[in-house]
Each structure stands twice: as structure tokens, then as C-alpha cells.
């Protein structure tokens, strides 16, 4: 037996010795010993131990000449800066000096540590460091500066405007190593300032393929939100049949290719006519984004592939969305966790565009090793992608699943057969024949689910249901599953008018076994008897006696639902004698002139109105019990996932997760870039120095648009701005006031504008529209073309 006191003393002495040794190494003049002491501290930090007591000793080595020592010092300070804020502030000067170090790693780590110190006092210093590193020649340092922007924003939100200016500058960075971090900072600081993306749109699209994986994900998320607000909706312009036709036409299988060759390899070999149709239906910039994102479908990162699938699902037209089929199928070869996420996204895509995966139905066949959550999703997908061309193979596979020993799996397979039959009416007869055979199975769960599936299909085909219902009625003695028997009773009662000989016999058999039925069976037997009595009336004494017997049995049943149903049907079918007598008395009083006023009747019925003769539902018993029931709408078990964005956690969980933001709706009218920029307060796409508008494709188009402005302005009264917008939108009074101004005032205002924009003034003089504006923004708007395409402004 160990002596605990001696053991604790030994541990304490060892800890003291280790502490002394680490302090000695940190205070040593040899870099090797310092490095050994820091490695011990970092190892203890990785194990979760608190080593904050060494903070003063570590800070002394912040200016070490060894690169490895300084790296470890930075890691340690970054970990304990919040706990030792006063001591951390002592090393700020050293970090500022390191921002000018020759080594890019030192510069980057210095800014990283400065931004990681959560002390609001140093936020101006961090801002200065960010501004300095933004213009650094090293892409790595600029990347760290982009990562520091959200940290500075969290530290001091008052710096938001300055940070937005930095982000707008960094969006022009041409390094693919940096741009992903810049977009991440954009999403965290100013996600609504989409006007900053206008001049960089095409550049971001071209840089997609060269970004790192997480940069691609961030960029595609941002470009998706941008596209949903800046372009018109191209989805739905072509039908599913047209999409399938174009899909089959564009896929040209080579000799050495697989049976299901990747259609993305042949997309570039499409005919010129198809590309022209595509350009007519889809905005050029949107088509350019989809084209640039297409190579990323070959990425090894599953999230990158899902991001591209997200773009094509929410942006691409029908004839382009088929390109994401095979890449998503490829992801199903990974671990089951990844399979579950991918299958959930496929369910959401298939619910909107089933033609994308209809040729890949074999990949959704259930394997014996598939867990339950993957098996259920595969069955849902099979039922949704079933078409006339593949339904035979899918039904053949589902019939094999019925032979499984797993009862739950068999039940879901039968339900899937019913959904396939309801989706494709041509296969309903064959599916009904197979389900009827399953109704004679020895498994009670198989029988119950088969009868339920038959009932749902027969409700959709009421004209062809008599033969099948007769066969089910004959097998009522062999079927012992309570749920199956209840569905048969319902079917016979619903079609009792077409079964004059079968329905009474079923009621006779049901009356014998009434006491042994479960709650659902008893309720359906009561409803069956009520329907037969309502149909036959008092002409059939046998049916009335059977129904009276069932009502008397249900009157003393233990289940209150059965007792309530019996009371309701007795009063409905045979009428309430007391109510009838009260109605006769009211009629006699009305004839004698002693009838009550309508207000008295309303008071007697506690505010409910009724006729003077009384309300007798027995007169409408046929309309109530024998009315046609609408066919049920069978929803998919995965219903609701299509409302969420593809690739999101909310789609996987099928509920809204904290932080989820739905995609913005498509604009109904093409947005105007100039108006958006004026509202957003961002930099305009008009280049004042060059005196040109970036939206104009060629100089001829610009001259044509400017000449149109001249003719429109000369034809009517001109405003002080001389622009087409002001002449069209301005009121008559405003135009008269502007035209009534003196020429001297207009010349003075023109001189003020010439001091800031000399080149603009020259162009205004050539166009004759530059007089009468004292504000720079109004001068720029005057030079803008009257109608400019948005796609050109992103080039």
C-alpha cells in the first residue's frame, strides 16, 4: 500500500524542480535552452494545463533573434494575453517594430498577436497595423491582415467605416491566396454592402478555380447572394421535358467512356445554337459565374462540390442543372456521415428538379450494410426520381426489399411502391396487383401496409376499385391485422352503393367480431353500418337490426371514442326524438300565432341561429355520410427540406438553425447599378479620371447613348443638370425655374465643377450638357449613359 503523503510530496517536489528548470531555461542566454523551455510550456498548454505564471518570463524573449523562439513566444502570448493584459501591453512596442521586419512570417505573426489581444485600448494600434499590412508585398501578410479585420471590428465596432474602406481596397487584390480571407472579412463586417462587389464580380469569378478550398466556399456563398439580388430569375424558363431533351442532346458518349459519362466534359462541345439560346435566357454575367464554378465540381473537398451544387440549384436554369448529378453521386462513396449529408441535399434538389438524377437510380439502391438513416433517404430519392423509363427497374428492386427480414424496412419498401404508383399512373394497375398479393402475406406488418397502400391508390382511382375491394372483402376472415381490417371496412363503406351484396355481408361478419376489434376497427364498423342504413333506409330490416346490434355493443364499450361515435351516429341516422318533438311544438305554436320572436330563439340557443322548424341533420344523412372523400395527398417523409438552402445545416436537420439566413428573393425588375450605388454610398463604377463609363462595351455604344441624351434633352425643356433622367423625372415647375436662371450663375457653377473635374468638363462641353450643376455627383450622373447593361459593369 502506497503512502499518499509521501507520494504527494514527491509530486510537489518534482513540480517545483520542473518550474525552476523552465524559468532557468527561459532566462538563459542560450537560444537552445530558451527553445527547450518554450517547447515544454507549449506542450503543457496542449494538455490543458495552466502555465500563466510564466508570462513575465516569456515576454522577456519577445525580441529574441531566433525565429523559432519568437514563434513560440507569439503562440504563448496569444493564449494568455487576455489574462495578463497589463503585461501583454508592455510588448506592444515590440510588435509594432516587428511589423517592419524583413521576414514575412514575423510581420504576419506580430499582427496576428496584436489583433488577438482582446484589449479595447489597443484598437487604434491594431487599426494602424492593419492599414500598414494591407499594402504589404507578401500575400501571406495581407491574408493575416484580412483575418485581423473581423477581430478589430469585434474589439471596436466604431471602426466599421474605416474597416469597410480597407475591405473595398483589398477586394482589388489579385492574389488568390488573399482574396478568400478578404471575402470572409466582408461577410463578417459588411455583408449587405454588395455594391462593393460590382467592379470585382468578373474578377472573383475568374479567380474561383485558383482559390484555396475554404476560399472557394466563401466566395461562392457571397456570389450566390449577390446573384440573387442583381439578376433576374432564369429558373423555370424551360420545362423539365425541354431540359431532358437538351441534356440527351448535349451528352455525346465516347468509345472509351463509361455508360454514364460525365456530362460536364461534353458541355463545351455543344452546338452554337444551344449556346445562343442559353445567352438569350440567362444573363451573361450569371452564365459566366456558372461557367467559372463548373471545374470546382472535380474538387476533392465535398463542401466545395456542395457549394457548386448550391449555385446551380439556386441560379442555373433547368437545362444546366444536370451537370451536378455525377459529382454529387461521387460523394456517396465516402463515409456514412458524408453520405447522410449529401443524400439530404440530393433530396432537396430532387424535390425541385428530379430529372437531374433520374439516370443515376442504380446508385440509390439500398445495400445490406446501409444504416437506417441512409436507407430511408435512398428510398425517398427512388420514389421521387421514378420516371416511365426507369420505373420498371425501381419497382423490381423494391419488390426484392419486401423479402427482407427487417419488418420496418419491408414496411417502408411497400410505402415506396405505393408512392411510385401514385406518381406514375401508368404503373398503378401492376402495382395494385403486386400489393394485393402482399395482402395475403403471413407477416402482419406487410399485410397492414399493403392494404393502406391499396386504399390510397384506390382513392385516386375510384372507378376501377370495385374488383379489388371485393377481393379484399373476401379475404377479411384471413386478415387479422387490426389496421388492415379497419382500412377494408372503410373501403367497403365508402363504396357501399356499388357493393349492394358485399357490403351487408361484411357488416354481418364485422358484427360478430365487434368485441374483439381494436378501436380503429370498431369506429369503421360503426361508420359502415351508418352508411348502409342511410343508403337503404327503412327498406332493409336486416341491416337496421345489425346496426342496432352494433350500436348497443358500442354503447357499453370501454373506449369513450367508440361510445361517442355510437351516440353521434344514432342521433344522425335515426334523429333526435326530443328535438323532433320540440320542432313540432314550435310549428304548432307558429300556426296558432304564439311563436317566439327570432331574438327569443337566439337566446334559447345561446346565440346560435336556427330555422323555426328546427335543425334536423337526419334529413341530410346521405350527404354527410356518403359524400365523396378527396384523395389524400401523400407527402414525402423528407418534405420541407426544399425550403432551405442547399449545403446548409438547416437543410440537414430540416429545421431552422441559429444563424441561418434564407436566400433573398429574385428581383422582379432588373436593378439599376447607379441607383444602388447612390443608396449604398459606395464608389461608383464611373471612372471620373478617364471620363468614361465602365459599363459601356465600346466607344460607339457610349457615343450612341450620349447622342440619344442630346436629342432627348434638346427636344424638351432642359434642367440644370442637363441629363436625361432629370428631364424625364423633373416636374414642369422645376424645369421652368432652372431655365429661368441667369447665364452668369450657370457659368460660375460650371467653373466650380471644372476645378475638380477638368476632363469631365471637356466632355460636358462637347455634349452640351455640363452646365448648371454645382455638385460632383450630379455631374457624374449627367455623363452616365441613359440605358446601360449591368453585365458590362462587372468586367
From TrEMBL:
The gene is AP3B2. GO terms for biological process: intracellular protein transport; vesicle-mediated transport. It holds the Pfam family Adaptin_N. Residues 257-279, 582-605, 664-683, 704-795 are annotated as: Disordered. Residues 20-573 form the Clathrin/coatomer adaptor adaptin-like N-terminal domain. Its main location: membrane. SUPFAM superfamilies: ARM repeat (SSF48371). Belongs to the adaptor complexes large subunit family. It is found in: Endomembrane system. Coiled coil: none annotated. This is AP-3 complex subunit beta-2. Residues 587-604 have a biased composition (Basic and acidic residues). Residues 718-747, 757-782 have a biased composition (Acidic residues).
Amino acid at each position: 500500500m502506497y503512502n499518499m503523503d509521501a507520494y504527494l510530496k514527491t509530486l510537489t517536489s518534482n513540480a517545483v524542480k520542473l518550474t525552476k528548470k523552465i524559468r532557468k531555461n527561459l532566462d538563459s542566454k542560450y537560444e537552445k535552452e530558451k527553445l527547450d523551455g518554450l517547447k515544454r510550456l507549449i506542450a503543457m498548454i496542449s494538455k490543458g494545463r495552466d502555465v500563466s505564471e510564466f508570462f513575465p518570463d516569456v515576454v522577456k524573449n519577445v525580441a529574441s533573434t531566433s525565429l523559432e523562439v519568437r514563434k513560440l513566444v507569439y503562440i504563448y502570448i496569444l493564449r494568455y494575453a487576455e489574462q495578463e493584459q497589463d503585461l501583454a501591453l508592455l510588448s506592444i512596442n515590440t510588435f509594432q517594430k516587428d511589423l517592419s521586419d524583413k521576414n514575412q512570417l514575423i510581420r504576419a505573426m506580430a499582427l496576428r498577436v496584436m489583433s488577438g489581444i482582446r484589449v479595447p485600448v489597443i484598437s487604434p494600434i491594431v487599426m494602424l497595423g492593419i492599414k500598414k499590412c494591407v499594402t504589404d508585398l507578401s500575400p501571406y501578410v495581407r491574408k493575416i491582415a484580412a483575418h485581423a479585420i473581423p477581430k478589430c471590428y469585434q474589439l471596436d465596432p466604431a471602426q466599421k467605416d474605416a474597416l469597410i474602406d480597407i475591405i473595398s481596397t483589398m477586394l482589388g487584390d489579385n492574389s488568390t491566396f488573399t482574396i478568400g480571407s478578404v471575402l470572409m472579412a466582408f461577410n463578417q463586417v459588411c455583408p449587405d454592402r454588395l455594391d462593393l462587389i460590382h467592379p470585382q464580380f468578373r474578377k472573383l469569378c475568374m479567380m474561383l478555380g485558383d482559390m484555396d478550398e475554404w476560399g472557394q466556399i466563401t466566395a461562392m456563398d457571397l456570389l450566390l447572394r449577390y446573384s440573387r439580388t442583381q439578376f433576374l430569375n432564369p429558373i423555370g424558363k424551360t420545362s423539365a421535358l425541354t431540359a431532358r431533351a437538351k441534356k440527351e442532346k448535349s451528352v455525346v458518349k465516347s468509345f472509351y467512356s463509361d455508360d454514364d459519362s460525365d456530362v460536364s466534359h461534353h458541355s463545351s462541345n455543344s452546338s452554337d445554337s444551344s449556346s445562343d439560346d442559353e445567352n438569350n435566357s440567362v444573363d451573361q454575367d450569371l452564365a459566366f459565374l456558372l461557367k467559372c464554378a463548373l471545374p470546382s465540381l472535380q474538387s476533392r473537398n465535398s463542401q466545395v462540390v456542395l457549394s457548386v451544387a448550391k449555385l446551380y440549384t439556386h441560379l442555373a436554369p433547368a437545362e444546366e442543372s444536370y451537370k451536378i448529378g455525377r459529382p454529387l453521386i461521387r460523394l456517396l462513396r465516402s463515409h456514412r456521415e458524408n453520405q447522410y449529408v449529401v443524400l439530404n441535399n440530393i433530396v432537396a434538389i430532387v424535390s425541385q428538379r428530379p430529372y437531374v438524377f433520374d439516370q443515376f437510380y442504380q446508385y440509390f439502391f439500398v445495400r445490406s450494410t446501409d444504416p437506417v438513416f441512409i436507407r430511408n433517404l435512398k428510398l425517398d430519392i427512388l420514389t421521387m426520381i421514378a420516371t416511365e423509363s426507369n420505373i420498371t427497374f425501381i419497382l423490381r428492386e423494391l419488390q426484392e426489399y419486401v423479402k427482407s427480414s427487417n419488418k420496418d424496412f419491408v414496411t417502408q419498401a411497400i410505402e415506396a411502391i405505393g408512392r411510385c404508383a401514385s406518381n406514375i399512373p401508368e404503373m398503378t394497375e401492376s402495382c395494385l396487383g403486386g400489393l394485393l398479393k402482399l395482402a395475403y402475406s403471413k407477416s402482419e406488418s406487410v399485410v397492414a401496409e399493403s392494404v393502406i397502400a391499396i386504399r390510397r391508390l384506390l382513392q385516386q382511382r375510384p372507378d376501377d376499385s370495385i374488383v379489388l375491394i371485393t377481393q379484399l372483402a373476401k379475404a377479411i376472415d384471413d386478415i387479422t391485422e387490426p389496421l388492415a381490417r379497419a382500412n377494408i371496412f372503410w373501403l367497403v363503406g365508402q363504396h357501399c352503393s356499388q357493393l349492394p351484396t358485399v357490403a351487408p355481408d361484411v357488416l354481418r361478419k364485422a358484427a360478430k367480431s365487434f368485441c374483439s376489434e381494436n378501436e380503429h376497427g370498431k369506429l369503421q364498423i360503426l361508420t359502415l353500418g351508418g352508411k348502409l342504413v342511410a343508403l337503404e333506409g327503412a327498406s332493409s330490416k336486416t341491416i337496421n337490426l345489425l346496426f342496432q346490434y352494433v350500436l348497443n355493443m358500442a354503447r357499453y364499450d370501454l373506449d369513450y371514442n367508440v361510445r361517442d361515435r355510437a351516440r353521434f351516429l344514432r342521433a344522425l341516422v335515426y334523429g333526435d326524438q326530443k328535438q323532433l318533438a320540440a320542432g313540432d311544438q314550435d310549428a304548432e305554436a307558429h300556426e296558432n300565432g304564439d311563436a317566439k320572436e327570432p331574438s327569443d330563439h337566439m337566446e334559447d340557443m345561446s346565440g346560435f341561429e336556427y330555422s323555426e322548424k328546427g335543425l334536423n341533420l337526419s334529413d341530410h344523412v346521405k350527404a354527410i355520410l356518403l359524400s365523396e372523400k378527396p384523395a389524400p395527398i401523400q407527402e414525402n417523409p423528407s418534405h420541407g427540406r426544399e425550403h432551405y438552402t442547399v449545403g446548409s445545416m438547416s437543410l440537414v436537420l430540416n429545421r431552422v438553425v441559429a444563424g441561418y439566413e434564407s436566400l433573398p428573393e429574385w428581383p422582379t425588375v432588373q436593378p439599376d447599378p447607379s441607383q444602388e450605388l447612390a443608396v449604398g454610398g459606395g464608389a461608383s463604377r464611373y471612372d471620373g479620371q478617364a471620363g468614361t463609363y465602365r459599363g459601356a462595351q465600346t466607344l460607339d455604344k457610349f457615343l450612341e447613348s450620349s447622342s440619344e441624351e442630346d436629342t432627348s434633352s434638346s427636344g424638351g425643356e432642359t434642367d440644370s443638370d442637363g441629363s436625361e433622367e432629370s428631364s424625364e423625372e423633373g416636374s414642369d415647375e422645376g424645369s421652368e425655374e432652372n431655365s429661368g436662371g441667369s447665364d452668369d450663375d450657370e457659368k460660375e457653377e460650371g467653373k466650380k465643377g471644372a476645378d475638380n473635374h477638368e476632363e469631365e468638363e471637356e466632355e460636358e462641353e462637347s455634349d452640351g450638357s455640363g452646365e448648371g450643376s454645382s455638385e460632383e455627383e450630379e455631374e457624374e450622373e449627367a455623363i452616365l449613359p441613359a440605358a446601360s447593361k449591368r453585365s458590362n459593369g462587372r468586367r
